[in-house]
Amino acid sequence: MNNKLYGNLIFELSHPGRKGYSLPDNKFGDYEVPAEMRRENDAQLPECDEMTVVRHYTNHSGNNFGVDNGFYPLGSCTMKYNPAINEEIPGMADFRDIHPLQPVDTVKGCLDVCAGLRKALSEIAGLADFTLNPFAGAHGELTGLMVIRRYHESRGDEKRTKVIVPNSAHGTNPASAAVCGLEIVEVKSTADGVVDVDDLRGLLDDTIAAVMMTNPNTLGLFERNIPEIAKLVHECGALMYYDGANLNPMLGACRPGDMGFDVMHINLHKTFSTPHGGGGPGSGPVGVRKGLEQFLPDNEHDSTLSVSPYHGNFGVILKAYTYILSLGKEYIKYVGPLATLNANYIKESLKDVYELPIAGLCKHEFVFNGLADKSTGITTMDVAKRLLDYGYHAPTIYFPLLFHEAMMIEPTESESKVTIDGFIEVMRKIAEEAKNEPELLRSAPHNTPIGRVDDVLAAKHPVVTYKSMLND
To answer: Is the torsion defined by CA of 23, 29, 33, 38 positive or negative?
Structure first.
């Protein structure tokens, strides 16, 4: 491969006077552009022939890493397997070419899809109904909290302005509560990583609107005290909110509604398969138990709450419904148990060389606290960078914040034992390298187009234009 085409910026391949396009003759005459709309200087654009441009970007596209070309231990939180049919269905003209403002009687098929998905989600979650309006998971969280506020206000109980959030929660939980105008109260976790019921009991009073929980939690642990927690919360007049980010291992095993949750959002782009690396697209339907349906913000309910005039991201809705129908009730029940099996297999196979801060059965994910042997000085960052040399995407690192060298691994249900065994072998090899060749890890990666970068400098002083790079 010509490294000149592969490793350089498109600007560095530029030659004055080269063009990769030709425009038809001007048949419309010349028009003066107003002075206030003109550039002071010509745009600095690269001048390349068409083949150079095609080869440059085609070669660079090979640097993209996805679940289609390698093991991605970020799993259902970031890049769950997305079967090709999930792309084909939204690409059909009858779905692709619709407009949100066209007459309702011309999109009855699309509305049937939405109705079918709402029914399926209600059955999966054990709740009464869902709205598909929210555009993302965080948008769903905000919507769910707005539903809870509207419920309390409808009863004249307006002093409930606080939300209890575990100290292990996703960062969006307190953020969404704050945006909703609610005060955040933190509840502690026990030494084994679950909500401290005794601490929670002391926080509950008539100012609490809701308790937000993820189950399994951010450590991948099932909140085994959930029946007692739900009882305490409901007795004080508050509601239970379920963050659906970790719903994947629950499929086929249990339902949030049966646990006592009143309101929840589901990340369709996580649990039900839509790749969303890079920030989008997403969809965050919100479901409620029976008796709260009237507060849902959509056209199906007589609600004064509005978060969007449309059915969220319809393409993601289509993918989720396709995924659910493809599995059917016969096979969707295997998703959670298989994800749990894969995660526990990796955990048990590596816990002798990586520190496992909380022992016991995990669900779809678990957290190591770096290498078991701390004498090497090798960090979680070093391990993650070295994984790239072996062709694996790094897992989530330095989250959750409960552990200094956190490394969250989440394989999902789709990976075979052969693939997982290969990952385990590499992780063990890296642990051995940390003892015998630590500098190899500190300077990793070695086999990627770009080596170790200064992450702090890149975050604080990003160079995003070619001109700036030359000036630097």
So the answer is: positive
pLDDT of residue 2: 45
Quick one: tokens of 409?
Answer: 């691994």
> pTM of this prediction?
0.89
Helix ranges, 226-360 (H): 226-235, 256-259, 268-271, 314-331, 335-350
Residue linked to tokens 């693939």: 419
Q: Domains of the chain, with CATH numbers?
A: 3-61 (no CATH), 85-331 (3.40.640.10), 335-460 (3.90.1150.10)
Residues 6+ away with beta carbon under 8 Å from 209 = 145, 148, 149, 152, 160, 161, 162, 163, 182, 238, 239
Say how many CA atoms lie within 13 Å of 356 toward its Cβ: 19
* Phi, psi of 229, rounded to the nearest 5 degrees: -60, -50
**Please, which pLDDT band fits residue 278 given cuts at 50, 70 and 90?**
low
* 205-260 pLDDT tens trace: 999 999 999 999 989 999 999 999 999 999 999 999 999 999 999 998 999 999 99
